[in-house]
């Protein structure tokens, strides 16, 4: 049986921390669908389409990874895709409490889909998309935080917003 994992997120933008989890997940699961969800509580910098293009660019060498989007409930999407697992990254203890709440709700919605947590590589444990956007907004160097294609997209975005 093929093991399919959904790696959900807003990815606004994708960071090396996200990419670390996706690459490692691709070694564990037969297929990983990186799915862009639009978080209604956040004001995104990049459109869903832009985020998907950036994800496709940075995962193009991972043969068992594909990029998709959904605007509904994660567990409905996972069921539609016949996924067995939700793949999530944890940076610090502070993430754990939030993730535990989400996992408990997801389990209530569909007890047949497991959540698989991976600890982010220590070098990325401080990293968040929000932090990257804040640093990039002031034209600081983000080359060690995001892939080059994302760095260029951030520069372009913030050049437009001057």
UniProtKB/TrEMBL annotation:
The keyword Cytoplasm applies. One of its GO terms (cellular component) is cytoplasm. Pathway: Cofactor biosynthesis; coenzyme A biosynthesis; CoA from (R)-pantothenate: step 4/5. Its main location: cytoplasm. Its EC number is 2.7.7.3. ATP binds at residues 10-11, 18, 89-91, 99, 124-130. The record marks 18 as: Transition state stabilizer. It catalyses: (R)-4'-phosphopantetheine + ATP + H(+) = 3'-dephospho-CoA + diphosphate. Pfam families: CTP_transf_like. Keywords: ATP-binding, Coenzyme A biosynthesis, Cytoplasm, Magnesium, Nucleotide-binding, Nucleotidyltransferase, Transferase. Substrate binds at residues 10, 42, 74, 88. Its cofactor is Mg(2+). InterPro entries: Cyt_trans-like (IPR004821), PPAT (IPR001980), Rossmann-like_a/b/a_fold (IPR014729). CDD domains: PPAT (cd02163). The keyword Cytoplasm applies. GO terms for biological process: coenzyme A biosynthetic process. One of its GO terms (molecular function) is ATP binding. It is found in: Cytoplasm. Residues 6-134 form the Cytidyltransferase-like domain. Homohexamer. NCBIfam families: coaD_prev_kdtB (TIGR01510), cyt_tran_rel (TIGR00125). Belongs to the bacterial CoaD family. Reversibly transfers an adenylyl group from ATP to 4'-phosphopantetheine, yielding dephospho-CoA (dPCoA) and pyrophosphate. This is Phosphopantetheine adenylyltransferase. It comes from Aquibacillus halophilus. The lineage of its organism: Bacteria, Bacillati, Bacillota, Bacilli, Bacillales.
């Amino acid at each position: 049986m093929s093991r399919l994992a959904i790696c959900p997120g807003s990815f606004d933008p994708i960071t090396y921390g996200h990419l670390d989890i996706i690459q490692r997940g691709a070694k564990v699961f037969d297929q990983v669908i990186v799915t862009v969800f639009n978080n209604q509580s956040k004001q995104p910098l990049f459109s869903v389409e832009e985020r998907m293009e950036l994800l496709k660019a940075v995962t193009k060498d991972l043969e068992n990874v594909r990029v998709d989007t959904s605007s509904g409930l994660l567990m409905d999407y996972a069921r539609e895709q016949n996924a067995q697992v939700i793949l999530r990254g944890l940076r610090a203890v502070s993430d754990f409490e939030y993730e535990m709440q989400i996992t408990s709700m997801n389990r209530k919605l569909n007890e047949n889909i497991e959540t698989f947590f991976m600890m982010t590589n220590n070098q990325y444990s401080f990293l968040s998309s929000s932090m990257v956007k804040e640093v990039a907004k002031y034209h600081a160097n983000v080359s060690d935080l995001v892939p080059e294609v994302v760095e260029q997209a951030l520069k372009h975005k913030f050049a437009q917003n001057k």
